[in-house]
Amino acid sequence: MIVAYILAAGLRKKKAEFPRISEAMMIVVYFLCFDMGLRMGINEEVTSGIGTIGAVAFLVTVCCIAGSMAATTVTRKIFRMDRYGNLPGMKYEGEKEASAAGGEARFKSLRTSLMIVLVVGGGMSIGAFVIAGKFAEHLQSFDDLSYIGLVIMLCILLFLVGFDIGAKGSIFETIRRVGFRVLAFPVAAIAGTMIVGTIAYLILGF
To answer: What is the value of pTM for the model shown?
Structure first.
């Protein structure tokens, strides 16, 4: 990831453009989700309890998201930042564009979420009904290969994320504008997710 950032930052100085990085990242994400779906599909313990596991996992996920959102909102209020990360009296050049693109961004987010659900479901179906059903004697070999594929895809995704950050070059601009307090937000999001997720885990007894 760091190597990718340095590489992209060097190319950015030469005015190189990379308009397809986001699309490439989403393709890798879809492959990851499909692979994870396959791995879940060939796991009999998962498929046999999909009803209970799915319902509890959904509730825990909703709680984790709510905890993350609440923690970041509270952190933003503490630092008196607006939703664009501006401090009082500051204006961001891209604020109007970001506001205008808000509806389109929400639609893309919803479409991406739906695609991920479909890809995971498709992977689980193929894993349960095709691979586990017709190639039961080779499940361990398949599990090993799918794990290797998962690691490779994760490495590619990390490389692309680092490259995308380096190509945009916005991270240091953000730190320059609001200071290192911006680093409090990922910490708050992680803390909110872990705290609320743990509480939900204990209540639901999963």
So the answer is: 0.66
